[in-house]
Design brief:
This protein has helices at residues 14-23, 76-82, 93-103, 126-141, 147-165, 168-181, 194-198, 202-212, 228-239, 289-301, 307-314, 346-363, 367-378, 388-400, 407-416, 420-430; strands spanning 36-39, 45-50, 56-63, 87-88, 91-92, 106-111, 116-123, 218-224, 262-269, 272-280, 322-326, 334-342, 437-444. Mean pLDDT is 91; it is low at 1-30. Helix 11 runs antiparallel to helix 12 and helix 12 packs across helix 16 (420-430). By secondary structure, the protein is an alpha+beta fold. It is globular and about 60 Å long. It folds into two domains: 14-239, Metalloenzyme, LuxS/M16 peptidase-like (Cytochrome Bc1 Complex, Chain A, domain 1, 2-Layer Sandwich), CATH 3.30.830; 262-380 and 404-444, Cytochrome Bc1 Complex, Chain A, domain 1 (2-Layer Sandwich), CATH 3.30.830.10. The chain contains 16 helices and 13 strands.
Amino acid sequence: MCVESVLIRICRSFLEILVWWLLLGAIPAMATPHIQHWSLDNGSRVYFVEAHELPMVDIQVVFSAGSAYDGDHPGIASLTNGLLDEGAGDWDANALADALARLGARLGTESLRDMAAASLRALSESTTLERSADLLAAVITRPTFPPDACERVRAQTLVAITNGDQSPGSVASRAFYKALYGEYPYGHPALGTATSVAGITREAMIDFHHRYYVGHNAVVILVGDLDRSGAAALAVRVAGGLSAGEAPAALPPVPGMGANVGVETISFPSAQTHVLSGQPGTWRGDPEYFPLYVGNHILGGGGLVSRISAEVREKRGLAYSAYSELLPMRAAGPFVMGLQTRNHKAEEARKVLQQTLEKFVQEGPTPEELIKAKENITGGFALLIDSNSKVAAYLTMIAFYDLPLDYLDHFKEKVEAVTVAQIREVFQRRIDPAHLATVVVGGKE
């Protein structure tokens, strides 16, 4: 099952790390993949990149079925996704695992805030690929939700929630998302709460699967050693059995600058204090994404060369790591600044973080900072599309969020076109240092 035990720095799952890495600038300088696209009769959208370097195929089937769609049952998306491979079709969990092992295939499931996914990596030899694809098809179309597995996965989730209560980073993340989003669908923990998870029934999970794991809500990603006709047949084999269904309604816009502006201090027995501060930021397809992204790279997204790192780490030695991130989602994802510091230095570090943002918003970057940021962003992208799985992550981002198929082709030129004036203007209009939600967790000996 997918268990997110720590939710900041924002959903550290394999799939999501790849997707967020892409949006933080991981665009290759080399030729970008040629993307082919079509739809199945049941409404599933298919995206395919042909790659014959290795005799492998990577498949991902992604649904708008993450925790943003939990509704009145926080945690149901995670539970449902975690049970997909606990029994499907004619296979129980052990039979599925044995069949995958014999085929040398790898199956995975993921549940995030916007999306839920099932993925498969298999050899491209026809018999092996077909049998592996049949297993993936069963997992997404015919999960059985065995009662004993439901209780086991529930128990594992409750343990993960309890473990999160003992982690200052997890406590800070939960409080930060709640402060930022309140009752908005992004505001509750993706795993749910102990109370909500305990109350979710097996029937509710089955209903959630029937509602959201449908063709019109599915995106199929294929990357690997196939031609177009083989990819078309494989897509039908994997997702053709989904009922057509309907895509869920679009998420509403995120209201305002944040639900709870101000500083929330949570006493916690830890050696260091965690500080998170921010507001709703940008979304996938935001027309002002590029000046926001390049500006954030200068502010705190560029590692040790960023302003926040220089002010907090280099000049004052207040923290080993201090950063800012823009995390676009379907609706406005967080703009977040964060650090960990010694308990008695927490207030000083928080003020330095705040002052650094205020100065950046007021003045913008220098021309020299902008040149270095562009060089850094555009200088080393080729290694980030050197595997099928990484290309599949690009496709997931493009397909799931309805970005143009040539998005990667034009990314570099859009970065190069950003100016100092654009960054200063958009930060002054979109980022308000006086309206930050800040969470401070620690301080208790």
